[in-house]
From TrEMBL:
<feature type="domain" description="GGDEF">
    <location>
        <begin position="397"/>
        <end position="530"/>
    </location>
</feature>
<keyword id="KW-1133">Transmembrane helix</keyword>
<dbReference type="InterPro" id="IPR033479">
    <property type="entry name" value="dCache_1"/>
</dbReference>
<feature type="transmembrane region" description="Helical">
    <location>
        <begin position="288"/>
        <end position="307"/>
    </location>
</feature>
<dbReference type="InterPro" id="IPR003660">
    <property type="entry name" value="HAMP_dom"/>
</dbReference>
<keyword id="KW-0812">Transmembrane</keyword>
<dbReference type="GO" id="GO:0003824">
    <property type="term" value="F:catalytic activity"/>
</dbReference>
<protein>
    <submittedName>
        <fullName>Diguanylate cyclase</fullName>
    </submittedName>
</protein>
<dbReference type="Pfam" id="PF00990">
    <property type="entry name" value="GGDEF"/>
</dbReference>
<dbReference type="InterPro" id="IPR000160">
    <property type="entry name" value="GGDEF_dom"/>
</dbReference>
<feature type="domain" description="HAMP">
    <location>
        <begin position="308"/>
        <end position="361"/>
    </location>
</feature>
<keyword id="KW-0472">Membrane</keyword>
<dbReference type="InterPro" id="IPR029151">
    <property type="entry name" value="Sensor-like_sf"/>
</dbReference>
<dbReference type="InterPro" id="IPR043128">
    <property type="entry name" value="Rev_trsase/Diguanyl_cyclase"/>
</dbReference>
<dbReference type="Pfam" id="PF02743">
    <property type="entry name" value="dCache_1"/>
</dbReference>
<dbReference type="GO" id="GO:0005886">
    <property type="term" value="C:plasma membrane"/>
</dbReference>
<dbReference type="GO" id="GO:0007165">
    <property type="term" value="P:signal transduction"/>
</dbReference>
Length: 539
């Protein structure tokens, strides 16, 4: 569990996660932007394509209406030219084959608006259209008009009618010829069906006043559409042809393409759901997503392997630390030749360790050195004496310990001052060091008390010579502040050839010897053999 959680804290994991995140963001960013651009382009392409189809359909409808108008005009002119009476029109209409093919119905009305001829039914209904706006407009304008969509008074079907005035020889209107176009099955319906509208799209035709002329929901034909602000109809009724973004009542976003007709004040519009328009993009999106996932996975794997490889030197450094801790290697393993950050780190660590080792050595020396005389101190001596005894015991050689005390030192301090006393101690220590061999160890225990450990003695008698030598070394006057002063010393020496002698016995024996010298008048030495003989000699 711990191993598992430490994996998540590892540098490798973090770098791999970073690589994956970067690749993911870059992939999503680049892919997303590309898709957005592609979608915008596609939207433009689809809108243009649909507008060109609408333009074709609009041209067809315009032509169709124009043909109807022309035909109706031709028929009206024929009636006018032949000066046919209203009662003759029925026969004349029936004789015109093309009228049946072109119009849903053709009727004639007298000037009072009464039905006087009906192409499809000779039994004339009692119908009057005097109140119809298109009837009044025709009378006023003296020319043919196209009506708004309306429900036929004759068939009851939703229709749009075209009119032509019927004139007498003087040019007065005697009646109106009316051609009806059915809106439920318009003559241009095949053309409309040919337009692509997507799965949920639909096509509608609307007048400039918002009345539906054509709609897939037939019930809505003749209805006043909702052209309030923001509505789809409002967008469709914009004066310029083009396309806009819109939303259906159920919230479906659509592309609304619209085109105005030339012959009538109508707009043909296509509502194309964006979802259908971009259906091809969905598979592209899916493929892009799969591609991004694959790239991310590969990047993650690659990142992991690269990171692992890059961090190998760090692992090696870690191994070095463990090896040093376990005593399998020394600090030199950090002194490596590498020019990268790991090399810098390793060498910095090496330098730090070197300085630390040096500081430790200095501290150790400070701890074992007497600050005033630079001799070993009591601490060092206490550790050293048992070792020296053991060494002598193993070698079967005699070994000696001398305790030295400056005679009347207190007096020097009291008369010349503490600083002068210090000078005496320093000079005393220097002479002691000079008087003995390198293999002998000199230390200051405290105040004016010094010790010397003598090793590798050839015989017991050697100490006699050494004692004299030390006393002689102190004979020349000490120069204290430029003033010569005689300084003497008392020396108590303990010597042993016994391997079992311990430090305390040696110290006690040397102390006793010193006491005897002091008691005997100072400036002399006394030797006390531990284990075998007592005091050998006192001078
Ligand atoms: N200047 C100086 N004096 C010290 C130091 N340490 C101890 N002393 C003094 O050394 C003197 C030691 O005197 P003692 O050894 O007791 O007496 P003494 O006068 O030497 O008498 P004897 O040993 O019997 O000859 C004391 O006055 C201490 O204050 C030191 O580091 N420097």
């Amino acid at each position: 569990m711990r191993r598992f959680s430490s994996f998540f804290y590892s540098f490798k994991f973090k770098i791999t996660a970073l690589v994956i995140t970067l690749v993911l963001f870059a992939g999503i960013g680049a892919g997303g932007i590309s898709l957005l651009i592609a979608e915008a382009e596609l939207r433009e392409v689809i809108a243009r394509q649909e507008l060109s189809l609408l333009t074709g359909a609009a041209a067809f409808i315009d032509n169709d209406i124009q043909n109807k108008r022309n035909l109706l005009k031709v028929v009206a002119e024929e009636i006018n030219g032949r000066q046919l009476s209203l009662s003759q029109i029925q026969t004349m209409l029936e004789a015109h084959e093309t009228l049946r093919d072109t119009f849903f119905n053709v009727n004639a009305f007298d000037r009072a608006g009464n039905l006087v001829a009906n192409l499809h039914d000779r039994r004339l209904k009692q119908v009057n259209i005097v109140a119809r706006p298109y009837f009044q407009q025709t009378l006023q304008l003296h020319e043919g008009v196209i009506s708004a969509p309306l429900r036929s008074a004759i068939s009851g079907q939703p229709v749009v009618v075209l009119t032509q005035p019927l004139l007498d020889a003087n040019g007065n209107i005697i009646g109106i010829l009316v051609g009806a176009m059915e809106l439920l099955r318009p003559s241009f319906s095949a053309q409309l069906d040919a337009l692509r509208q997507g799965a949920d799209g639909y096509l509608f035709i609307v007048t400039s006043k918002g009345v539906m002329v054509h709609h897939p929901d037939k019930k809505r034909i003749l209805e006043q559409g909702d052209d309030s602000e923001g509505s789809l109809l409002e967008a469709a009724l914009l004066p310029d042809d083009g396309w806009e973004d819109g939303v259906l009542d159920d919230g479906v976003p659509v592309l609304l393409v619209h085109k105005r007709l030339r012959e009538v004040d109508w707009t043909i519009a296509l509502s194309y759901p964006v979802r259908s328009a971009f259906s091809s993009m969905l598979s592209v999106r899916l493929r892009a997503l799969l591609g991004a996932m694959l790239v991310t996975f590969c990047a993650g794997l690659f990142g992991w392997l690269i990171t692992k490889q890059l961090l190998r030197p760090l692992r090696r450094l870690h191994q070095h630390v463990e090896d040093i801790s376990a005593g399998r290697a020394d600090i030199n393993v950090f002194d490596i030749v590498r020019r990268d950050e790991f090399g810098h780190l390793s060498r910095a660590f090496y330098g730090l360790s070197q300085r630390r080792a040096q500081a430790e050595l200095e501290l150790q020396q400070l701890a074992s050195t007497d600050v005033l005389t630079s001799l070993h101190n009591r601490r060092m001596f206490d550790a050293f004496l048992p070792l020296a005894l053991a060494r002598a015991g193993r070698a079967g050689q005699p070994m000696a310990l001398a305790i030295l005390d400056v005679d009347h030192f207190k007096e020097i301090n009291d008369t010349l001052g503490h600083a002068a006393g210090d000078q005496v101690l320093v000079e005393f220590a220097r002479r002691l060091k000079d008087a003995v061999r390198n293999t002998d160890t000199v230390a200051r225990l405290a105040g004016d008390e010094f010790v010397i450990v003598f090793e590798q003695l050839a015989s017991n008698m050697e100490m006699d010579v050494l004692g004299k030598k030390i006393l002689q070394a102190m004979q020349p006057p000490f120069l204290i502040g430029g003033v010569p002063r005689q300084v003497t010393s008392s020396i108590g020496i303990a010597i042993t050839v016994d391997a079992d002698t311990n430090s305390e016995e040696m110290m006690r024996a040397a102390d006793q010897a010193l006491y005897r010298v002091k008691a005997a008048g100072r400036n002399s030495f006394s030797i006390h053999t531990v284990g075998t003989a007592m005091v050998l000699r006192a001078r």
